[in-house]
Amino acid sequence: MSNQLLEAPARASFRSGPLLVLLASALWGTTGTAASFAPAGSSPLSIGAATMGVGGLLLLAIAGRSAFEVLRSGGLGLLVVGALAVAVYPLAFYSSMALAGVAIGTVVTLGSAPVFAAILERVADGVRLDGRWAVSAALAVLGLLLITGGGWAGAGASTLLGVLLGLLGGAGYVVYSWSASRMMRRGHGSRAVMGAMFGAGAVILLPVLAFTGGPLLSSPSGLVVAGYLAVIPMGLAYLLFGAGLRRTSTSAATTLSLLEPVVAAILGVLVVGERLGAGAWCGTVLIGAGLVLVSTRR
Fold first, then answer.
1. Which of 181, 200, 201, 249 has the maximal Cβ count within 10 Å?
2. Rounded to whole angstroms, how far apart are CA atoms 28 and 25?
3. Nearest Cα residue to 155 out of 209, 101, 98
4. Cα dihedral across residues 238, 16, 108, 34: positive or negative
5. pLDDT tens string 249-267
6. Taking 70 as the threshold, does the pLDDT of residue 155 lie above it?
7. Is 73 helix (H, G, I), strand (E, B) or coil?
8. CA 203 remoteness from chain centre
């Protein structure tokens, strides 16, 4: 009976925290495949700006007045830092995928996130990460190394620049996740924080879209791609992510988000037609093992 009493809160905590982050990560994993259907000539900057610019406005609309209450209640510094990171992330991420491929761009961006998160939480919050997290992160990073160098065919000379942009995107992802988490711990609701932060980020991204979005927004297929990216992996996924972040630390959330490159790799093979070698499949399995460890930690 005592074990059952202990397991019930644990299951409830998982459903209201890590599970929501995992669901959001699965939706994020569809972004690269969806972007591959954009019209020829569409800039990755326009795709990134449309995804999180338009999606940011959607989150702001869903949050309503509560987002503006976040602005009035102080914490402007965290909001500005988070909004800048929100703007950097999609521009770097989609450019990374355009240069290095859907799979490599995704795994480098998300694979670097746990390392950046550990550094940021250690420096800013003094958080000591436990051995279980260290093992799960090590498995995931090893898996990412295998995916990146374990059998992807056709990598061009632009791969290095794509990897560097992926690292920049990973840093941006961690910074806005950490900023949002800090604001929520001050008592703000997840919808309010996400609406305020991504709405502020949209102010930066929408001019980028206006400048680069001609080929993307001038065709029906481009509008469908932009609409899907803005509503599903942006609007819906970030609502799930924000809710899960209330009960999940930044370091754990960024490790859980490594489900995204697994989904991206599978879709890249099945839909986009990318080829995956044996080493990369082994890397995918290691990432899955890391996800299980971090999502079941007490």
1. 201
2. 5
3. 101
4. negative
5. 776 777 777 787 778 878 8
6. no
7. coil
8. 20
Residue with tokens 């299980």: 292
Q: What is the pTM of this model?
A: 0.79
* The pLDDT value given to residue 200: 94
Contact 226, 104 (CB under 8 A): no
Name residue, tokens 């491929």: 101
Give the model's pLDDT for residue 13: 61
pLDDT of 169 higher than 80: yes
Q: How many residues does the chain have?
A: 298
Instruction: Give the pLDDT confidence score for residue 151 in this predicted structure.
Output: 47
DSSP secondary structure letter of residue 200: H
**Phi-psi bin for 149: left (phi > 0), alpha (psi -120 to 50), beta?**
alpha
144, two tokens: 């990412």
Amino acid identity, position 56: G
Q: Are 133 and 251 in contact (CB under 8 A)?
A: yes
Nearest residue to 90 via CA among 77, 109, 107, 118:
109
